[in-house]
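Lecture notes, continued. The same structure-token format from the folding unit now serves as the input rather than the output. Read the line below as a description of shape only.
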């Protein structure tokens, strides 16, 4: 009976540890420091790349249409929007649970994914606790960023899985 009282908590802890190891991406760790913007959804910190989880950013060469029919380089403006969020301040990134290449990144405790969607510079993935669609609806209502006119939404890729 004493063995059962001891063994059960140990087995539970082993199970929890195995679950964490299964979800935690191998070979990736938390990082903090100055970040270089690669595109509107990709940062690099000390040589490691971090793709922002929960968003679908425009392609770097994407153009959007203003209501009057003229085009503008919205992809490059989205890159500039992310650059403005990270310039001069340390960025903290941690691997996104259950994903091999996505990260949750923060500046001053605020999610960069959330800030990109709030500014209208990325579309929200719609799943679980990471659903930023309310912020996307706000940006759309305010005609912010991409929502100033028309655009072809980027195809949701692996950023919207898990």
């Amino acid at each position: 009976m004493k063995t059962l009282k001891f063994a059960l908590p140990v087995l539970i802890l082993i199970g929890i540890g195995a679950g964490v190891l299964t979800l935690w991406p191998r070979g990736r760790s938390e990082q903090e420091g100055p970040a270089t913007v690669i595109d509107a959804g990709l940062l690099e910190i000390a040589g490691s790349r971090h793709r922002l989880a929960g968003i679908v950013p425009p392609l770097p060469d994407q153009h959007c249409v203003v209501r009057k029919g003229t085009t503008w380089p919205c992809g490059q403006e989205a890159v500039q929007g992310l650059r403005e969020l990270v310039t001069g301040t340390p960025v903290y990134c941690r691997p996104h649970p259950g994903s091999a290449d996505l990260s949750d990144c923060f500046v001053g405790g605020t999610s960069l994914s959330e800030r990109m969607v709030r500014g209208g510079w990325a579309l929200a993935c719609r799943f679980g606790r990471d659903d930023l669609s309310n912020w996307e609806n706000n940006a759309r209502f305010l005609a912010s960023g991409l929502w100033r006119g028309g655009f072809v939404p980027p195809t949701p890729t692996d950023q919207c899985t898990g």
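Point for the exam: Helices lie at 2-23, 74-86, 112-118, 133-142.
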